Amino acid sequence: MKIAQVAPLYEAVPPRLYGGTERIVAHLANALADQGHDVTLFASADADTRARLVPVRDQALRLDPAPLKSDLACHLGMLDQLRRRAGEFDVLHFHIDLLHFPFFESIAGKTLTTLHGRLDLKDLDVAYRRWAGFPLVSISMAQRAPLPEANWHGNVHHGLDAAGYRPPARPAGDYLAFLGRISPEKRPDRAIAIARAAGLPLRIAAKVDAADRNYFEQRIRPMLDDPAVEFLGEIGDADKSDFLGNARALLFPIDWPEPFGLVMIEAMACGTPVIAWRCGSVPEVVDPGVTGVIVDSEAQAAEAVWQVQRLDRRQIRATFERRFSAAAMASNYVDLYRRLTDGDPRVRAQAA
């Protein structure tokens, strides 16, 4: 199949440091190419891909040192290029929320749009009713809850290239890990409290967005005075196998309706169990007693730190390979692509 993958331009594909959506696009494009499909990736020029790259900007926005730049202008330029070339592809797969809807409405039936973010925002329900002809993909069933009547074409869990994550032969297991972003909904303060209650050090590898700088300075930085808490800042993919693989467990103490939670399967890829709050997608991702423990309180989480020692790290990795590999994700998407190209009547009805 001839497939266009359309990435956001905020991070490189894959990201150099923190980043979720662009990382998934990178792994999906490579896996589809490995399976023999003709894949064209629309992304910034700093992408590293086995697909055919169409560079629509010189570099990704976040690490671009230019003081003034327009994310809207570069995304619109990318969409203009793609619209002119749309006839070259069997499927146009978008990962940019709904920005493309007004421009591709006449060919909505040959598009697929994966929604990567939360959907409980004001105005979204109106937009998805207005452009109901676009087939949508959720990344968890929990993500769909605010928009149950949207034009859902499928549900595909994220996947990662298994070769990029290597469990250590003898994991140290003498600390807990927190990976991701410092923000109120990610609850790094809760992770610190859990580690203290369990009597283990905590290592935090996380990005601090400008929007969360005050939260970090006022709420989290004072907690970093504890010698048992180490803040590493952002880390890239090259450091994740060591960081995650040597941890006793990944703490995922979220306080929001997480659409997926990529760090959970990154930990599983390293053979590391996950201790996660019962929130959002967590019950769909974590297999209790196999890949981790799902909790409802800090006390349960502190107790789970000792329970996870009994889990088989080889089984955790095997479960990741079966459920969350890039190859599995790509195969699931190909099934959805074929429904589009074979003329799924539900797609035709919505697009009419």
From TrEMBL:
The lineage of its organism: Bacteria, Pseudomonadati, Pseudomonadota, Betaproteobacteria, Burkholderiales. Signal peptide: none annotated. Pfam families: Glyco_transf_4, Glycos_transf_1. This is Glycosyltransferase family 4 protein. SUPFAM superfamilies: UDP-Glycosyltransferase/glycogen phosphorylase. InterPro entries: Glyco_trans_1, Glyco_trans_4-like_N. Residues 18-124 form the Glycosyltransferase subfamily 4-like N-terminal domain. Residues 175-311 form the Glycosyl transferase family domain.
